[in-house]
Design brief:
Layout (H helix, E strand, L loop, with lengths): L2 H14 L23 H5 L20 H19 L5
Length: about 90
């Protein structure tokens, strides 16, 4: 497990009061299970191949003209709030 994911897991356990015994929520065996059902290949995609959560994918959002104007007006406030965020 990557160190950053270990820290995230530890923070979730501490912040949310999650029992350390529930690691199965964050890590799993790869492959299909009998309990997955016939639709698993359609629902799960790469989940079947993985054993833990991956890095977040960067979302590219294209805003219209009015949406971009609102985003531009909010940028300074967002930057100020971002500086005060809780860092894990």
């Amino acid at each position: 497990m990557r160190d950053s994911r270990r820290h995230i897991y530890g923070a979730l356990v501490w912040l949310r009061g999650i029992s350390p015994g529930t690691a199965g929520m964050f890590f799993w065996q790869s492959g299909q299970r009998e309990t997955d059902g016939i639709w698993a290949s359609h629902w799960y995609g790469r989940l079947i191949e993985t054993t833990e959560f991956g890095e977040a994918e960067s979302a590219k959002i294209k805003l219209g003209e009015s949406g971009q104007a609102i985003a531009d007006q909010c940028r300074d406030a967002y930057a100020q709030l971002s500086e005060m965020r809780i860092r894990l």
